[in-house]
Design goal:
This protein has 128 residues and is mainly alpha-helical. It has one domain. It is built from four helices and three strands, in the order E-H-E-H-E-H-H. Helix 2 runs antiparallel to helix 3.
């Protein structure tokens, strides 16, 4: 099967659930680090396929983020560049409130992020 997307994630649950099933780029980075890594991929010609700040959890409240980008590299997509840069700036406004979170809370944040990217993956696979 040919996939037109890659999931970039720092979420161990997403890696566990989707490794070997869809193209996955697991990056053990911070939330901001994931946004910056995706920005670097966009500068290499990938496009954003899911919103970097999807969901109701604000940056600074969760350490986990999964973002779908195009598998293909092409010309620089200025819309993707503008969006990821805006998201990086937005994330920088929130101070880090994740230190000292319990395992249960971290598991909950992993599940929320996993559910969001699962929906995006299902949409990408079915074309809806």
């Amino acid at each position: 099967m040919h996939f037109h997307f890659i999931v970039v994630t720092n979420n161990p649950l997403v890696r566990e659930r989707f490794e070997g099933q869809v193209p996955l780029d697991y990056q053990p980075r911070t939330f901001a680090g994931i946004l910056e890594y995706v920005r670097d991929q966009i500068h290499k010609g990938h496009r954003l396929l899911s919103h970097p700040l999807s969901g109701s959890v604000k940056p600074g409240e969760t350490p986990y983020k999964s973002i779908m980008i195009s598998a293909e590299q092409g010309a620089l997509d200025t819309d993707s560049v503008i969006l990821i840069e805006d998201c990086i700036q937005h994330a920088k406004k929130f101070r880090d409130r994740i230190s000292g979170l319990s395992e249960r809370v971290l598991d909950d944040f992993q599940l929320v992020d996993c559910n969001l990217i699962t929906s995006a993956i299902e949409s990408a696979l079915t074309g809806h």
